[in-house]
Amino acid sequence: MFIEELLPAFLTGGVICAIAQVLIDKTALTPARIVVLFVVVGVVLTALGLYQPLVDFGGAGATVPIMGFGYLLANGVKEAVIQDGLLGVLTGGATAAAAGISAAVVFGWLASVTARPKAK
User: Fold this and answer.
1) Are 96 and 75 in contact (CB under 8 A)?
2) 110 exposure class (CB count in 10 Å sphere: 0-12, 13-18, 19+)
3) Half-sphere exposure of 56 toward its Cβ, with a 13 Å CA cutoff?
4) Can you give the pTM of this predicted structure?
5) CA-CA distance, 82 to 94, in Å (whole number)?
6) Could you tell me the CA-to-CA distances from 87 to 14, 40, 93 in Å, in that order?
7) What is the CB neighbour count within 10 angstroms for residue 98?
8) Could you tell me the maximum CA-CA distance found in the chain, to the nearest angstrom?
9) What is the pLDDT along the chain (120 residues), one digit of tens a residue?
10) Which of 31, 32, 55, 119 is close enough to 62 for a disulfide, judged by CB 3.0 to 4.6 Å?
């Protein structure tokens, strides 16, 4: 059971990261643009129904990389639209991603308080 979950996750996440590395090495795209591109690709693939099979196969290998954030946003909007109507377009993504964004803010703050930065 353990290896049956790890191998697909490793392969899926590895392929996503390899694609990002090729984009960094072979294009003039900045890392910030690649991140935005991956989020948008995650949203578009989710909207087309193509990302869910990848999540079913790869598990955390598909949901943890940045494309998974797009998947999370798109699913949040979809569920909120079903529940709240058109207002869900504005609230669904933020609601779905609230825990992850809050954790990033808290851990970023903790790192800034505990780190001792030095000038280069």
Assistant:
1) yes
2) exposed
3) 6
4) 0.80
5) 16
6) 37, 21, 11
7) 11
8) 52
9) 688 889 999 999 999 999 999 999 999 999 999 999 999 999 999 999 999 999 999 998 999 888 999 999 999 999 999 999 998 999 999 999 999 889 999 999 999 999 887 877
10) 55
| Helical ranges in the chain per DSSP H | 2-26, 31-47, 51-58, 60-63, 66-84, 88-114
Question: In which residue are the tokens 């989710």 written?
Answer: 46
Alpha carbons 2 and 66: distance in angstroms, whole number:
24
In a 3-state reduction of DSSP, which class is residue 65? coil
Tokens of 12: 């899926």
Q: Which residue reads 């505990």 in tokens?
A: 114
Gap between the Cα atoms of 85 and 79, Å rounded: 9
* Residue boundaries of the structural domains of the chain: 2-114
Whether 29 and 23 have beta carbons less than 8 Å apart is answered as yes
